[in-house]
Structure formats: structure tokens, C-alpha cells
Amino acid sequence: MSEYSNNHDEMIEEIKMKRELMINSAYSQGFTSEITLKYSQELDELINEYQKVMEQIQRPNDDIKFALKQMIMIWPKVLV
């Protein structure tokens, strides 16, 4: 399996390439051939890794939003 990149665009391209390999293999070798199943499993791993990376990117944004909401709720009490 290839080394995963943290670069969003590179990960998307790698997923697209693996998907094409899987589809081509399915049509030429059969949907249940060993190589097609191998490509399918590798594609699953790439997609899972992509989702993990995207989740990590989203989490800090959610934390910042939560902190800002708390600050907004506290400010009126401080100003009184």
C-alpha cells in the first residue's frame, strides 16, 4: 500500500486512481477476481484515511466555534 499524504488534493487523486484501477480490473478480470478485491480493499483504506484526515481538520474549527460561543455568552455578564 502507498504512503498516505496529508495533502487533500493528492489524497483525492490517489483515491480516483485506485478507483479507476478497481473498475478496469472488474471489467477485465471480473468483479470477484482476486486483484479486483485487492484494489477494492485498498480503495476502502484510502477513503478511510481521507475521512480521518478530514475529521481532524474539521475538529479544530468546531472547537474554535464553541469557544467563541462561550465568550459571547460571558461578555454581557462581564460588562454589567
Written overview of the protein:
The longest helix is centred in the last third of the chain and has 46 residues, at 34-79. Helix 1 (8-29) runs antiparallel to helix 2. The relative contact order is 0.11. It is built from two helices and no strands. The protein is 85% helix and 0% strand. The radius of gyration is 21 Å and the shape is rod-shaped. With 80 residues, the protein is an all-alpha fold. It has a single domain, classed as Irregular (MYOD Basic-Helix-Loop-Helix Domain, subunit B), CATH 4.10.280. Mean pLDDT is 82; it is low at 1-5.
Helix content: over 70%
- What's the total helix number? 2
Distance between the termini: 60 Å
Q: Number of folding domains?
A: 1
| Largest sheet descriptor | none
Count the strands? 0
CATH fold group? MYOD Basic-Helix-Loop-Helix Domain, subunit B
Q: Residue ranges: pLDDT <50 for 5 or more in a row?
A: 1-5
Order of helices and strands: HH
Write the layout of secondary structure elements.
Blueprint: H1 8-29, H2 34-79
